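Troubleshooting: if your tokenizer reports a length mismatch, compare your output against this known-good record of 832 residues.
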Amino acid sequence: MSDPNSDKNLRILVVDDNRSIHDDFRKILCSRVDNELDDVESELFDSPKTTAKRPPFQVDSAFQGQEGLALVQKANEQGRPYAVAFIDIRMPPGWDGVETTSRIWEICPDLQIVICTAYSDYSWNEMAAKLNSPDRLVILKKPFDAVEVLQLAHALTEKWRLVQEVKSKMDHLETLVEERTKVLKVEIAERRRAADAWRQSEERYHSLFQKNPLPTWLIDLDTMGFVAVNEAATQKYGYSSAEFQSMTVKDLHLPEDRPSVAERFGPDQRHKPTDGLITRHRKKDGSIIFAEIVSRLITIDGRELKLAVADDITERKLAEDRIRDQAELLDLASDAIVVRDVEGYIQFWNKGAERLYGWTVAEAMGAKMSKLFSQDDLRTLQAAEQEMSAKGEWSGELRKRTQTGQEIFVSSRWTLVRDDEGRPRSILMINTDVTEKKKLETQFLRAQRMEGIGTLATGMAHDLNNILAPILMSAGTLRWDMSAKDKELAISRIETSVKRGAAIIQQVLTFGRGINGDRTPVQPAEIVEEVCKIVGQTFPKDITIQAELAKGLWPVMGDRTQIHQVLLNLCVNARDAMPKGGRLGIVGRNIHLTQPKAALPGPAAPGAYVRLQISDTGCGIPPGDRERIFDPFFTTKEVGKGTGLGLSTVLGIVKSHRGVVTVSSEMGEGTTFEILLPASAEAAAIIAPAVPEQLPRGAGETVLIVDDEPDIISGMRTALQSQNYRVLVARNGREALDSVKANGQSVNVVVTDLMMPEMDGLTLIRGLRVSNPDLRIIASSGLSADAGGRGRNQELRSLGVKSFLSKPYTADKLLTALHDLLHPNGGAAQAA
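Known-good structure output:
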């Protein structure tokens, strides 16, 4: 007698990250002792206890969802599929039970799955919505009972077998009918048995048909009338079974859809199966639903019928339409809207992003942000990532390059999107092009700086005259017969005065031109010292300047020129408030706010700040004016003495640095402005204290000096020759090219001015790069490297010029630049 269990599939897969759970399942399912399930059945149904041994189940283990998916796929390929899978709901760090079930059903939809859980991670409705297959899903609460596990294992393996049998019956129903008909014709003696078998098959089919949870019909191919309808169809559509059998398929469809229905039942289409057809159905109450249709041709009693199953996908279709409509609305936005995952891969790219950056949706989707925007300011991006991770959002300005290489500025707002469990899932970025705004802002700030310089011009002229006086007097005394000590003192006075004059000119050039855009590490103490020098040299002598800076003042990330402008604007206002003299105080302190602080343009959030206070002992600000002093063009000065843009510029710059401003004032006692700038740990790590080193000597290297000023050539030659360098000179670019050609590879370094007659420095450098691409070059000018705009600075870099000396410079700076260029790794000097 054959074993009744021989046809059963007893293969079971357990997916759980807890190894002890696997051991429990094996003890329950793989034991060959008398099954506890038999005892329970005997007690419940008062039946004799069976002595037959149940065969043990074949249990395989996986500890993560990915591993379980691989085992299912392998079993299918070997033709030995699993019948049941017990899957834990939580399996960090990989997929959870719902995700694992969804993935497994994609490759093995017949697998019966039991979700094991000790927590209510999902409601039944949520799981049913996510998986769309509640008939194949069972929930098993932990800790579970052995009998319950055995019951589920036997019942679900049997269900799996029945499902396979039903599928086989459905696929081969016509063949079975034909075979049984032949049997009836050939063997009359077996007619009763064949009729009984047919009746049993009919009953099984009827049971499956009626119990199907999805609306199901049998449709006549010729009339399109409903021959049979299941209970799910009557419940979903509201028609009774009798009403359905008086209707045709066309009656469920909208008038405009009926021609396509008739075409599908035409002679050429009626025998073809249908998979995933989405159509509209009208229910009895008049409501419209979207249904996904699957149909197959079957034969019953020699009659060809179409078996059709409908799945209501209205909610899914409406959700898809809603998402598509939202995407279309986002495409209408002028802003660039981008969504990327936490790994940096782009998930959404609207038309605004396509217009702004140049990459199409097809090119951007799935690409990594860092590859599209490889030239972005990485330091700013890293700081933005850190703040967004800490606060869940970030906003600020970024410099980017488009697909064509064009540089643009965007005002960017980032929002961190989390999943249902609070884990970061994606980042929403909304970027607004502010390139033109930045250009206008730069022009405005430059104009405002020019106004500030104009107010200081008289003081500068006075100070420069005071500087020139000792130079003239000391230069005249050098012609006299005096002691070596007196000569050294005269030379020192000249050198000191020249340095003072050069510093004033450099400050005026830097402040007037400005370098805007990048955020770099800035030491506020250095800027305060520079401002104190300027106001000390240019303000009336009856104004006392007092600076008090805390030791170890924290650095900030910002624009050095703009912070300089803020302090100078406030100092100029303080000066104008003290026409009869007084005290101007500048105080720098490190503070840490534990509570929000009221300020402009908004409250200062708790955190570390550098506080800069500028106070005066002037007339004070009237109470009625204090609310308006930061408004553009508001001024209390006489016509022609102020534009009213100074304090509005201060507020704008401080706001762009994510800082705040406060003001306090008493009539007749003075005013204090307080600036709070966020301290930056990143800036502190970048800024390192300079270590003084002894100036190195040369080792016989050849240096070609190119300058149209004979005095500069003479001074440089003396300095270099005294430090063991061999010196060649040229008065313009053409002479320099001839000199390099004549001396060949013996020229180690070229030091060239950028502004010369006949051939300027840039043209010379281009010519030198053609003949000698590796030649070391130092550029110098009375203006800084970027004075000609960002283009000249970038061209110098592109030509391999890494060293620049701003005139006037000392012999020490020249010697240091030469040594650093000749020995970039800090090695000792060697002869060429």
